[in-house]
Amino acid sequence: MSHADVFVIGAGPAGLTAAYLATKYGLSTAVIEADPKYVGGISRTASYKNFLFDIGGHRFFSKSKEVVDLWNEILPDDFITRPRSSRIYYNGMYFSYPLKAFEALNNLGYIESTLCVLSYLQKQAFPTENPESFHDWVANQFGERLFSIFFKTYTEKVWGMSCDEISADWAAQRIKGLDLWSAMSNALRNSIAPKRAADKNGHTIKTLIDSFQYPRKGPGMMWDAAAAKVRERGGAIHMGTTLDSLRWNEMTSLWTIKARTETGEMRSFTARHVISSAPIRELLESISPAPACKAAADRLRYRDFVTVALIVDKPDLFPDNWIYVHEPKVKVGRIQNFRSWSPEMVPDENLACLGLEYFCFEGDGLWTSSDEELIALAKKELACIGLAAEEEVKDGCVVRQKKAYPVYDDGYKANVEEIRCELAERFPTLHLVGRNGMHKYNNQDHAMMTAMLTVKNIVAGENIYDVWNVNEDAEYHEAGEAGQREALQSVRLVPRRIGAA
Fold it and tell me: Same domain for 343 and 376?
């Protein structure tokens, strides 16, 4: 039986950040990762015949100086600066994002544009009080008409449910600081003299950033480097290994962990602290005896994801990093152009490599389709949109990603709060981090920050920071040293403690 000061479940951004910092502090560390080959989770870089592609698209941009410094510490020499370029495809037309005022006006037409503004003004005069759904929140910010054009179809593709069933929390978190007034004023400025987008208070809007850093061969470079440094410091990373059971011994203050390898071998570990980035539902299934909040965990839902990578016999199909597909007549939700992420992702300058993204639930028709069926669908839809003819597609492959997105349905918040409270009270050395680990749709930098603060708590011997406040406050995003101080203050536990570590 192996012993570690810190046992980490999952080698995605949050898990590897925790392991990297724990070993840096001299803590003995063990990590298990279900994937037999890749670290990085959804931030890994997949490969097919020397073509590299990102699972979902991961811009390296953060207004937290501490996160940026850590990126540069782990991967000091391999970042390139890339222009942020994306568009919306709707009704056979392309709209730049961020919006360009005159282009949007011409595409929508003067009558439709006027109706959109009037719809917005109506919502400003008669807003939905205490918006609870995604529909209510976005309509308040943009008006009903723009909601139906630019939000409804795409969002329902992503989540597979009505916008009335999706919590307003997701909208507030994903498009924080942006409303129609900000969008229009930035659109007008971009049409006349492009510059960095800002909200009404002059703060940069993260949704509208115009450039970002990116590892030259994809985000997997970052996590491969982090894993290598963990091993160099004596940390162990067990690939192809899944969590089987967790048991807490109150007398010894130790966890006993059992994990199963690909071959079925059972391995046993003990640890003083367990850091989990695994989906909450899976984590709760492993704890023995089962906590009362397991029923709440069973109610949590996840959205899965399929990327169909197509190699096309054309050099450059479009300049964007990705295109959001708001067209209801096709199932594809977003199309990545991997050369626009980095030229080194595509080994042949005469070819293009695109990633068509399909959002689904594990076990539904899309998920269970064969690779051949999915490639045929992607080729057909690429032609339907007009980007390439079917016969111009030379090859393709499929990558399925389970539990890519925690679902923000109308019951998720109460379920997560029940789980959070019971685990904090009963298991003070069980730490939840990351997107699935906390059931929070956060970005890569926020996932990393939850891990960074968790390790700070472990080293300090007490919970100085409440990691659940990461990405709850818009001020978390403020850049520079002052913004970093504000970010840390927003998660510092001043009036209350959630248990000694």
Answer: yes
Both ends of the chain: CA-CA distance in Å? 24
Check whether residue 286 and residue 312 sit in a common domain: no
3-state class (DSSP) for residue 429: coil
- Provide the β-strand partners of residue 166: 409
Q: What confidence tens digit (pLDDT) does each residue in 95-124 have?
A: 887 667 677 778 889 899 899 889 989 999
Give the domain-ending residue among 150, 175, 207: 207
Rg of the chain (C-alpha set):
23
**Residue 12 gets which letter from DSSP?**
S
Model confidence pLDDT, tens digit, residues 200-242: 455 554 454 678 999 999 999 999 999 999 999 999 999 999 9
Q: In Å, how far are 433, 483, 487 from 60, measured between CA atoms? A: 19, 18, 18
Q: Which is nearest to 60 in space by CA: 415, 321, 354, 359? A: 321
- Sheet (strand 334-337) strand order: 93-97, 86-90, 322-325, 334-337, 352-360, 302-312, 393-406
Residues 322 and 394 in one domain: yes
- Please state the domain count of the chain: 3
Residue of 308, 304, 345 lying closest to 330 (CA atoms): 308
Measured between alpha carbons, how far is 65 from 3 in angstroms, rounded to an integer? 34
CB 431 within 8 A of CB 465: no
Question: How far apart (Å, rounded) are the C-alpha atoms in residues 465 and 446?
Answer: 14
Residue 118: C-alpha distances to residues 115, 133, 183 (Å): 5, 22, 15
Interval 17-76: pLDDT, tens: 999 999 999 999 999 999 999 999 999 999 999 999 999 889 998 888 999 999 999 999
Do both 174 and 195 map to the same domain?
Answer: yes
Residues 306 and 294 in one domain: no
Exposed e or buried b per residue across 488-500, where buried means at least 16 C-beta atoms within 10 angstroms of its C-beta: bebbeeeeeebee
Q: Are 379 and 354 in contact (CB under 8 A)?
A: no
Query: Which residues share a beta bridge with 306?
Result: 358, 400
Q: Decide the pairing of beta strands 29-33 and 2-9.
A: parallel
Element at 137 (helix H, strand E): helix 134-142
Q: Is 329 in the same domain as 400?
A: yes
Range of the domain at 415: 2-44+219-300+410-491
Residue 154 shares a structural domain with residue 229: no
* Residue 416: strand, helix, or coil: helix
Could you identify the residue written with the tokens 């961020």?
98
Three-state secondary structure readout of 272-287 = EEEEECCCHHHHHHHE
The region, left, alpha or beta by phi > 0 then psi within -120 to 50, assigned to residue 25 is alpha
Checking 477-483 for CB contacts under 8 A at 24+ apart, the result is 477/63, 477/176, 477/177, 477/203, 477/204, 477/206, 478/63, 478/203, 479/63, 479/65, 479/204, 480/63, 480/65, 481/65, 483/63, 483/64, 483/65
Per-residue 3-state assignment (H helix, E strand, C coil) for 359-387: EECCCCHHHHCCHHHHHHHHHHHHHHHCC
* Strand pairing category for 334-337 and 352-360: antiparallel
